[in-house]
Amino acid sequence: MFDTLVLASNNAKKTAELLAILQPLGINLRTLADYPHLPVPDETGATLQDNAILKAEAARDGTGLPSLADDTGLLVDALGGDPGVRSARYAGDDADDAANNRLLLERLASVPGEKRTAKFVTVLALAVPGEATVCFKGAASGIILPAARGINGFGYDPLFLSDDLGVTFAEAGAEAKNAVSHRGRALQAFRSWLVGKSRDA
């Protein structure tokens, strides 16, 4: 369907996950590091899908190439779905992972363990020149722990005890995490779609 794909993310760790999962497809993968002067749109969307589309279409329009972007949110039931679409900016627009995790733990301080259920959701948007943008979704359920565990991953991974793995995403190896994670599942849906398109071609 296409030979080159731009991964439209400025998050180096997220890009590394995307590369690891997509490299077996044999597509020439580029990142935003290959286009240092490309403007990055503000994530002003009301939903994860809105933001994924904004980023994918901006990269497509700026490069003229098929572009794939994701937006991911942590939805905590006891917080009414927060931090949700603002997960990366939960503690402020310039907040880092540590600040976001601290704020999350503060807001869950009085919530007992069995009520700390949550899920990660990823929406991928594929923007191809001359075609309608297509979206893919993946989710992973778990519990928010009262303290961080593990040294791998990024974002809220050290606090997210995966229902599938029985350990936090930060305790799991990359291969185990990618097999069941929200981003991994969204990418699996994308890969299945690509295979179907190739068969139809």
Write the layout of secondary structure elements.
Blueprint: E1 4-7, H1 12-22, E2 28-31, H2 48-63, E3 67-76, E4 83-84, H3 97-107, E5 117-127, E6 134-144, E7 160-162, H4 174-180, H5 182-200
Parallel strand pairs: 1-2, 1-3
Antiparallel strand pairs: 3-4, 3-5, 5-6, 6-7
Describe this structure in words.
The protein has 201 residues and is an alpha/beta fold. The chain contains five helices and seven strands; from the N terminus they run E-H-E-H-E-E-H-E-E-E-H-H. Strands 1, 2, 3, 4, 5, 6 and 7 form a seven-stranded mixed sheet that branches. Helix 1 (12-22) links the parallel strand 1 and strand 2 (28-31). Helix 1 (12-22) crosses helix 5 (182-200) and helix 4 (174-180) crosses helix 5. The longest helix is centred in the last third of the chain and has 19 residues, at 182-200. The protein is globular, with a radius of gyration of 17 Å.
Major pleated sheet = 7 strands, mixed
- Computed structural class: alpha/beta
C-alpha-based Rg, rounded: 17 Å
Q: Note poorly predicted spans.
A: none
- How far apart lie the N and C ends? 7 Å
How many runs of DSSP E, i.e. beta strands?
7
Query: What is the average per-residue confidence, as pLDDT, rounded to a whole number?
Result: 93
* Count of helical stretches: 5
In percent, how much strand structure appears in the residues?
15-25%
Shape: globular
List the secondary-structure elements in sequence, H or E.
EHEHEEHEEEHH
Secondary structure: helix percent: 25-40%
What attributes characterize this protein structure?
201 residues; alpha/beta; 32% helix; 22% strand
